[in-house]
Predict the structure.
Amino acid sequence: MKIQRIAIAVTIINLILMIVLLTKMNAATAQKEQNNLQVVRGNGLEITDKQGKIRASITFHEAVVKDGVTYPAGVLLRLINTKGQPSVKIGAAEDGGGLSFANEADGYIQLIAKESGGFLKIKNPDGKEQVIKP
């Protein structure tokens, strides 16, 4: 009789453990599926440092007409230094894309690829500039 009671108790404990483990497994699987489906959507993204300064941004720009020139809509990624100056820019628009590296002393390198053609532009801090085209 005593052995039967122990066997029944162990069986009940095993059943309870099995039920608990199965419910936790399903919850973990459901959470994993939800994480795969989540998407962040918006018109832009800004990443700030601890002081609240914007250090990186991804923005969408509508098409603009300025001084009779139409600039197409596009997306711009900017990586910004501690002084608020964009050091790296990567842009994409309907007519092409570009990459720019800049420093604090007004020197920069631009690599531009457009429908009309591409070029590499280098400007030193002393103002000397060179454009390389194919």
Notes: Helices lie at 2-37. Strands lie at 44-48, 54-61, 64-66, 69-71, 74-80, 86-93, 96-102, 108-114, 117-123, 129-132.
